[in-house]
Amino acid sequence: MANSKLNVLVLHGPNLNLTGFREPDVYGKKPLEEIDKDISTAAASLGVDVRILQSNSEGVLIDTIQEHRRWASAIVINPGGLTHYSIALRDALVSVRLPVVEVHLSNVHAREEFRRTSVISPITIGQVVGFGGYGYVMALNALLNLDKEVV
Ligand code: DQA
Fold first, then answer.
1. Minimal-distance CA residue to ligand 1 atom 2
2. What does the alpha-carbon distance between residue 130 and residue 33 come to, in Å, rounded to a whole number?
3. Binding site membership of 56 for ligand 1 (Cβ less than 6 Å)
């Protein structure tokens, strides 16, 4: 990644299209469209190229990861409920050999027991949880910093 422009694929998994409406006390009141605008604004000011996609379909997420394996230099993903069981999504992320940051709007570690398990996190650089939509901006900054640190 070092010395090259960062191209980041940002993926939102199932049900995240309802962010702002769904359980606002857990996931926040900001609609996904506004979160995506914040991501694009932050990316532009950081000089990062982003492509953003939300899908309720595991297959579409996997296809998108595969299709972006040459364009992307990193992936930021909130896998939604797939986090807790999708080996297929994890395999896709491993297959493309790109750095991955996992984002969750809520602090999954402070919620139900089943949300504390992520089959995705062992193959990521790290997780950003509990900061709402700002977590995606944090992830971009973290990747950029990593980019500077990697020799
Ligand atoms: C989530 C947490 C998941 O447990 C849940 O299934 C979601 C959203 C989050 O962003 O906090 O859909 O990924």
1. 80
2. 19
3. no
Residue 78 CB–ligand 1 contact under 6 Å = yes
Bridge partners (DSSP) of residue 115 are: none
Spacing of C-alpha 61 from chain mean position: 11
In the chain (151 residues long), the average pLDDT of successive 10-residue segments reads 79 98 97 98 98 98 98 98 98 98 98 97 98 98 80 45
User: What pLDDT, on the 0 to 100 scale, is given for residue 146?
Assistant: 84
- Which pLDDT score is estimated for 147? 63
Task: Determine whether the shortest distance from the Cβ of 37 to ligand 1 is under 6 A.
Answer: no
Considering the domain 7-149 in this protein, what is its CATH number?
3.40.50.9100
Cα–Cα dist 93/132, whole Å: 23
Return the domain boundaries, the chain: 7-149
pLDDT score for 151: 45
